Amino acid sequence: MDSVAPTDDRAHDDTLALNTTDAQVRVCPGTGRLTSLRVGADELLRPGDDGGCFPMAPWCGRLGGGVLRVDGREFEFPRDDPPHALHGTVRDHPWRVVEHTPDRVLLTQRLEGRWPWAGDVVQDIRLRSDAVELGMTVRSDAHPFPAQVGWHPWFRRRLAAGDGDLRVHAAPAWQEERGDDYLPTGRRIDPQPPPWDDCFGMPDGVDVRLEWPGRRSLRIRSDARWVVIFDHPVDAICVEPQTGPPNGLATAPRTVRPGDPVTASTVWSWGPPDGAGAASQVPAQSSPLRLP
Question: Which residues are 151's β-sheet partners?
C-alpha cells in the first residue's frame, strides 16, 4: 500500500481528526495512538503521552524475560518493564497514512527494529455517530511467526470534577492466575476482586461496559477473547481487548503465515448511563466484576 501525503487536517499536534456531529477522534501517525476520544463535551481518554489508546503488536502485555523462543532460536527484546518486554514494538515507530477521510484513518507500519521476521501491521480506525471501530492485522511477507494484537486504552476515572468514579461491568468466564513475576501461571481461576493488573477470559468475545455515573456509558466489544484490566492509577482505568494472554507468544501462540494474518477488531459504542447498551452476560463461573 502506498502512503498518502498529509493534508492540512493533520496540523493539530501532529494528529489526524475524525469527526461526526457529536464525536471526534484524534490519531497520531507518529505512534499509531488514539490521542483523544471526545463524545459531546466529554473527553473519555486520559490525555498526554501516557494516555490515549495505543496499539499492541506483535505481542500484548509482558513478554517473559524479554525473550522469544521459536524453533530452537532465541530472540531478545528491550526489557522496558524489567525483567520483561512490554506491549510489542509498533508503538515505538511511526506509521504511514494510507487513507484519511472525515470518518476513517488507515495506517500501516513495517515490522522493524529487533523483530526478526518481515511483515507489516495495518490499523483501520473508523468513527460513526455512536461508536468508534478499530481493526488491526499483522501480516507476514514470507515466513511464519507468532503474533498477537490488542489495544491499550486509558479511560479517565472521572469526566469532570465532582463526578463519581468510573465503574467496570463484565462477566468473564475465568481469570488467568498471575504469578509473582506478573506472568500468567497457566492456571485459570475464578475472577477475583480488585485491585487488578490481570487478564480475564471471555470465550464468546470481549464484552465490557464502562459507566461514568450520571453521565454516560461505553460498551467495549471485540472478537478477541481476552481482556486485561489495570486499575492501579488514581486517574485512569485500562480495559485492553487482546487476542491472547500476557506472555501468549510463549504459552498460546497464534501463527501468522503469508496469506493467513492475525486480525482482530473492537467496537466502542457510547450511550446514556442508565444501562442502555449494557454488556451481555457472557457465561461466567462467578459474579460479574464491578469496580466500586
Answer: 55
Per-residue three-class SS string for 60-99: CCEEHHHEEEECCEEEECCCCECCEEECECHHHCCCEEEE
What are the structural domains of the chain? Answer: 56-290 (2.70.98.10)
For residue 283, give the C-alpha cell: 457465561
Q: Report residue 130 as a C-alpha cell.
A: 455512536
User: Hey, what's the cell of 64?
Assistant: 517473559
Reported residue count of the chain is 292
Tens-place pLDDT, residues 130-187:
999 999 999 999 999 999 999 999 999 999 999 999 999 999 999 999 999 999 999 9
Q: Which residues, listed in sequence order, are joined to residue 13 by a DSSP beta bridge?
A: none
Rounded CA-CA distance 87/27 in Å is 19
Record the pTM. Answer: 0.90
Return the C-alpha torsion angle 97, 33, 77, 79, nearest 10: 160
Q: 28-33: long-range contacts at Cβ-Cβ below 8 A with a sequence spacing of 24 or more? A: 28/52, 29/94, 29/95, 29/96, 29/97, 29/107, 30/94, 30/95, 31/91, 31/92, 31/94, 31/95, 32/90, 32/91, 32/95, 32/107, 32/109, 32/123, 33/91
Question: What does the block give as the cell for 138?
Answer: 499483522
